[in-house]
Amino acid sequence: MIETIRQGLKEEGIVVSISQLCRWFEVPRRTFYYQSVKAPPKVQPRFAEPIKALIEDNPSFGYRTMAHLLGFNKNTVQRVFQLRGWQVRKRPVGFRPRIEARRSRASQPNERWATDLCRVWAGRDGWATLALVIDCFSRELLGWHVSRSGKSRTAESALEQALIARFGTLGRVKEPFLLRSDNGLVFTSRSYTALVKSYGLKQEFITPSPRNRMAWWNG
Questions:
Q1: Residue 114: which of 141, 94, 95, 150 has the closest Cα?
Q2: Which residues contact 80 (CB under 8 A, 6 or more apart)?
Q3: pLDDT 10s per residue in the chain (219 long)?
C-alpha cells in the first residue's frame, strides 16, 4: 500500500520518501520492509485422521478428552481443531426458558425432574457417558443409561426408562411437568427437544453459572 502511494505520487511529480509516508500514515517503517518467511501451518495426517474419526463417533467430546483417549498432547489436538475448523459452532442466540437465579423446590412428585450427563471410567472399556434422571421432590433415581458415546440418544434412553419406571408405559403424561437440565448440546438438540415435547414435558434450562451447575439437581 505504501509503495503504491509512493509510485502514484512519483508519477505526478511528487517525490516522497518511504519514511515520510510511514510517518503520515502512522505505520511502523519496519513493517514495510519486513517480509514473513514462515510457511503456512500444516496438519500432519497422523494427528488429523484419528482425531477426525473420533469426532465422527463422539461429536460431544472436547479436545482435552480426545487428547486423553488418543494419547496426544492436548495443545496439539487443540491446534488441529483450530486449523481444520472442527470447533463446535456457536449456537444461535434465542430464547430459552431459564429458571430464576434462586433456589426453587418441588412440592410433590412429578412436578419437576432433572437430568444430566457425566463421564465415568468403565475399566477396560475406557470412558463412558452416563445419563441420569431423578425426581427433584423425592431425589429418586428414575432412569439411567450408559453408552460409549455422548450423543442425544443416551439422554433419550434415560428419559424413556424414567417414564416407564414411574408411569409403567411410554406416552404423553397426563399432567405436564418440568424437565430441568443444563444448556448442553445434547439437551438442546432437535432430537431431544422433540422427544421431550412428544411426551408432554416442558424443558427448563438452568441459569448458566457455576453455583447452579453444581446444584442442578436441587429441586
A1: 141
A2: 43, 47, 48, 51, 86
A3: 677 887 788 888 888 887 888 888 787 877 777 766 777 888 889 999 999 888 887 777 788 888 888 889 999 998 998 888 876 555 555 555 655 555 657 888 999 999 999 989 888 888 899 999 999 988 899 999 999 888 889 999 999 999 999 999 888 998 999 999 988 888 988 899 999 999 999 998 886 654 444 444 444
